[in-house]
Design brief:
By secondary structure, this protein is α/β, with parallel strands linked by helices. It has 14 helices and 15 strands. The protein folds into 2 domains: 169 residues, VC0802-like, CATH 3.30.2130; 209 residues, Rossmann fold, CATH 3.40.50.620. The chain is elongated and about 80 Å long. The structure holds adenosine-5'-triphosphate (ATP) and magnesium ion. Adenosine-5'-triphosphate binds next to helix 5, strand 11 and helix 12.
Length: 404
């Protein structure tokens, strides 16, 4: 595509993918498929060269491209780049343009007083080595913009030159999400409440390549329609990273009522969690998910002591992944803020677990005792019916438009 002011080019850096030996082809294929799918309808062109991808597009979709790059697992970084002919004059000129653009940009470039040039050369036929490129481009920028100074140790801005099949010049290197492309590690079923933790758990597993289905349990009319909408919103936000989330919404009122009627109050939360896991596992099998994912964190609340976690998982055989198990709330909250789920998670609608939660819950449940209570409840039919009659909501990632 010829360079014109109305056209933009983005450079994408691949990270961990490059370490994956024989698997690399499959990972890269998934990454390209995901990027193309997320950019569908924007008329962009994705070109892969060794170790770098380029996206060519017109300026009017740049916002959508940047949104996509900020939500794409499998890249370590990205930058909006200019490119030029492979001559040292053209490279110096482009570096000067980039430096002017930096100074003009009140955002990333605001307050730029010092800079350095970094250069990389995969085309060894280029007449200057990396050091020579840095020196020549640095001098050109200093001569054109005397207000700028070079600082090789702690510069305010770095202008990077990459000599490949063309010369690429960019500042404003942005961090990518890293991780592995979604879809390379099978599908997991996330137990998604309206809280802060579970969306983060889903995000972390998606970052290891997992596609995400989610199951949410509600106790309508004891829980509100707003509580359900809130979970749909959280799933949609998560879906921006995971190429969508299929959300299974399961009415658990009858199961909860049975527990409330027949179980000792101190045990209700543990027994409810056991029932949720059982229902989730049957949905997971039906949807070809290979594991369950929960937002449990050791000792965060009474139901998450190691003994109670043992009880919770005692009715299931599928692996249960708990990526937050060793994290504190502050670290989880930071991730929730970063990924955009936090502001929805703190909306004040009640989760079904809270409704029937006992004043004095069992802290260290014995798994045999838990099983005995659980069996006495004869929940099998109720759980089966709840799973069968679930609603499904496709919380798909945005297509052409940005989310509001
Ligand atoms: P979060 O629900 O996000 O963890 P929380 O800390 O308020 O916030 P917990 O009581 O800690 O919730 O629940 C532990 C885990 O159990 C959740 O992370 C989630 O995976 C699962 N869970 C709890 N309630 C529900 C629900 N109503 N539907 C689906 N999963 C749930
Ligand atoms: Mg929690």
């Amino acid at each position: 595509m010829p360079y014109s002011p109305a056209a933009v080019t983005y450079l994408l850096k691949l990270g961990e993918l490059t370490l994956k030996g024989e698997n690399r082809g499959g990972f890269e294929q998934a990454l390209r498929r995901n990027a193309r799918s997320m950019l569908k309808g924007t008329g962009t062109q994705l070109v892969a060269t060794d170790g770098r991808y380029f996206i060519h597009a017109s300026e009017n979709v740049s916002e959508k491209i940047e949104f996509t790059l900020n939500h794409l697992f499998g890249i370590t970084g990205w930058a909006r780049t200019r490119f030029c002919e492979k001559t040292i004059d053209a490279v110096c000129k482009a570096c000067v343009e980039e430096a002017h653009a930096l100074l003009a940009d009140g955002g990333a470039g605001g307050g730029v007083k010092t800079f350095k040039v970094e250069a990389r050369r995969t085309d060894k036929s280029f007449p200057l080595e990396s050091y020579g490129i840095m020196a020549a481009a640095g001098e050109a920028v200093l001569a054109a913009i005397p207000a700028l100074k070079v600082d090789v140790h702690k510069p305010d801005a770095v202008i990077t030159v990459e000599i490949r099949e063309k010369a690429y010049i960019y500042a404003g290197n942005r961090k990518g999400l890293r991780g592995l492309p979604v879809g390379t590690a099978g599908r997991g079923l996330l137990l998604l409440s309206g809280g802060i933790d579970s969306p983060v758990a889903g995000f972390l597993m998606a970052g290891r390549g997992m596609s995400i289905d989610a199951a949410h349990f509600h106790a309508y009319p004891y829980t509100s329609k707003e509580a359900r909408d809130k979970v749909v919103r959280i799933a949609k936000t998560l879906g921006h990273y995971t190429l969508g989330v299929r959300l299974h919404i399961v009415g658990f009122t009858n199961v909860q009522m049975r527990i409330k009627e027949k179980a000792p109050p101190a045990w209700t939360t543990i027994l409810l969690r056991m029932a949720m896991m059982e229902a989730a596992e049957s949905i997971a099998r039906e949807e070809r998910c290979k594991c369950l994912i929960s937002g449990e964190s050791l000792s965060q609340v009474a139901s998450q002591t190691i003994e109670n976690i043992r009880c919770t998982e005692s009715r299931t055989t599928m692996p249960i992944l708990r990526p937050l198990i060793g994290m504190d709330k502050e670290s989880v909250t930071r991730i929730a803020e970063k990924i955009g789920t936090y502001k929805t998670s703190i909306l004040p609608y009640e989760d079904c677990c809270v409704l029937f939660s006992p004043k004095h819950p069992t802290l260290r449940g014995d798994v045999e005792e838990a099983s005995a209570y659980y069996e006495r409840l004869e929940l099998g039919d109720l759980i089966e019916k709840a799973a069968r009659e679930r609603d499904e909501e496709n919380c798909s990632f945005v297509g052409r438009r940005l989310p509001s």
